[in-house]
Design brief:
By secondary structure, the chain is α+β, with helices and mostly antiparallel strands. The protein has 15 helices and seven strands. Mean pLDDT is 76; it is low at 1-14, 111-140 and 246-287. Belongs to the CorA metal ion transporter (MIT) (TC 1.A.35.5) family.
């Protein structure tokens, strides 16, 4: 029987996945794109696309990866490939991913193109001011497409973590208070599950925070995310290739040398380098992309994720305090049980002594005490034995209290 073609057909079907494409012009219908077609479309290696596949555990330590033609976003549920013209989101029919696609369509298709409010265009200042007031944009310049898409992904990831943190707080504080008032197996199990969720959310939020901090500390990674300026530089370099000794593809292979040209913010040293390159101001823009806008964007969400981590840290401290209080209560109960055990052991010892005396009197021996007809003597001996046992027991308890064994 021919069974070999079946695995190949399954492998070919598995290589095709659904992706939602959103651009500034609008959102296209969900389309099935193969891995190799997507690699040609975005210029990404296979390992980056494999990191976005939810069916495989992600082994990549980077959540935001900048490539030559795209930025790979792998923040929590916000998984996307951002290019200078469109955003590709895998698995748009997933209920957890659908809100991200809706946010991208609402934010990217409703914003005006950057050139319409550019200060260099006629009436640009006034247009930027009016549009900025309408859209809540602080600066006079609209962010490039890739930054607006990145902002949506960051906002989606931070909101997701913040929502999970708020939900956890609503469940955790009443459960901890109930455990404080009544220690039971059910309450302990609820707190154990809450603590497990707290550790998981804290780890995910810390991972996002570390990634943003890494980007803020690395100017080269932030410069590599300027896809629009990168394309503009490459187009300008191709148009003036006869004046340049370097190919456009070599520019971002030498980002470290290019970023050292940003010493002077007013562009003095950029002008010197561009004059040596032979293409004036336009080439200098490609060599030294300004990272202020992206840095402010990342800083804003860095502060937001810090707030989420602070809430989680406060909840963790409350959980630890509750655990310490429960441990103190359990230690107190254990001490009480130990004291009760000492008292019972002492009482058993005293009663055992009385039983021994009774056993001696119950032996088949002949003594004058057994031949007397006075019943009062029997009760006197019995009362004496009980009184002596009680006195010995009380004396033992008093000694225990004075020595600090019992409280």
């Amino acid at each position: 029987m021919n069974t070999a073609p079946t695995p190949r057909r399954r492998h070919a079907a598995a290589a095709v996945a659904e992706w939602a494409a959103v651009s500034g012009a609008g959102a296209r219908p969900v389309e099935e794109v193969g891995k190799h077609q997507l690699m040609r479309r975005t210029g990404l290696p296979a390992r980056d696309l494999r990191a976005l596949d939810s069916s495989y555990p992600s082994t990549s330590s980077q959540l935001l990866t900048a490539r030559d033609r795209a930025v790979v976003v792998n923040l929590e549920r916000a998984r996307a490939v951002i290019t200078a013209a469109e955003v590709l989101v895998p698995g748009p029919r997933d209920p957890a991913v659908a809100p991200l696609v809706r946010d991208l369509r609402a934010r990217l298709t409703s914003s005006p193109p950057p050139q319409e409010i550019s200060p260099s265009s006629p009436g640009g200042d006034q247009g930027a001011k009016d549009d900025g007031q309408a859209l809540g944009i602080i600066s006079d310049k609209v962010l490039p497409f890739e930054f607006r898409a990145l902002e949506v992904c960051l906002q989606f990831a931070c909101k997701s973590l913040e929502h999970e943190t708020s939900t956890l707080e609503e469940e955790a504080y009443p459960a901890l208070d109930e455990l404080t008032s009544k220690v039971s197996a059910l309450n302990l199990e609820r707190v154990r599950q809450i603590k497990s969720r707290l550790v998981a959310i804290s780890g995910r939020a810390q991972k996002v925070r570390d990634e943003l901090e890494h980007l803020l500390d690395d100017d080269m990674d932030m410069a590599a995310m300027h896809l629009t300026e990168k394309l503009a530089y490459q187009a300008a370099s191709r148009s003036s290739r006869f004046n340049s000794d370097k190919e456009p593809s070599e520019f971002f292979d030498e980002r470290n040398e290019a970023l050292r040209c940003r010493v002077d913010e007013e562009g003095v040293e950029e002008g010197e380098r561009s004059s040596e390159g032979g293409n004036g101001d336009e080439a200098s823009v490609g060599f030294t992309p300004k990272i202020d806008e992206l840095e402010n964007l990342l800083e804003a969400y860095f502060v937001q994720i810090e707030g989420t981590l602070n809430k989680l840290a406060t909840l963790r401290e409350y959980v630890n305090d509750t655990e310490d209080f429960i441990n103190i209560m359990l230690d107190d109960k254990q001490n009480q049980l130990l004291q009760m055990g000492i008292a019972l052991s002492t009482g058993t010892l005293v009663i055992t002594g009385a039983v021994v005396v009774t056993g001696v009197f119950g032996m088949n021996i002949h003594i004058p005490l057994f031949r007397t007809a006075n019943m009062a003597l029997f009760w006197q001996v019995t009362g004496g034995m009980v009184g002596a046992s009680a006195a010995i027991f009380l004396v033992a308890l008093l000694c225990y209290r004075r020595s600090g064994i019992l409280q």
